[in-house]
Design brief:
The chain is mostly helical. The chain contains four helices and two strands, in the order ααβαβα. It has a two-stranded antiparallel ribbon. Helix 1 runs parallel beside helix 2 and helix 2 packs across helix 4. The longest helix has 22 residues.
Length: 120
């Protein structure tokens, strides 16, 4: 699904929600881009929008080592180890209010931060 890193595009949100409601899996990187040093960046509100409008379980995940295997700007991955840690599914209620979506986004990133602190 094409994504614009700088703004929420309604057609992107609609496509993700449509696929989720059909039972498909959608992987979303809440920060919108890769970190240069492996630190967690602030999440974009898009994950909260999709979660609140689709009402499907969200599985938080933390990827360790991606900044070394595929640094920002690299065309090809380098040899190295990646580890992916998954958290417990999070359920969200339906809601269209911006504040509600921002809370969902924060909750998802908090769970990702917990996964990082427990495993790195």
């Amino acid at each position: 699904i094409p994504v614009d890193e700088d703004k929420i595009v309604p057609s992107t949100m609609k496509e993700a929600i449509k696929r989720l409601k059909k039972g498909e899996l959608v992987v979303i990187f809440p920060e919108g881009r890769r970190s240069e040093d492996g630190s967690l960046l602030d999440a974009k509100r898009g994950i909260g929008v999709i979660a609140s409008l689709s009402s499907v379980p969200i599985i938080p995940a933390f990827i360790e080592g991606s900044h070394e295997v595929l640094p920002v700007g690299a065309k090809f991955p380098r040899p190295g180890k990646l580890r992916v840690y998954f958290g417990q599914p999070l359920m969200s209620e339906k809601g269209k209010e911006r504040e509600f979506q921002e809370i969902i986004t924060k909750n998802i990133m908090d769970k990702i931060k917990e996964l990082k602190s427990k495993n790195v």
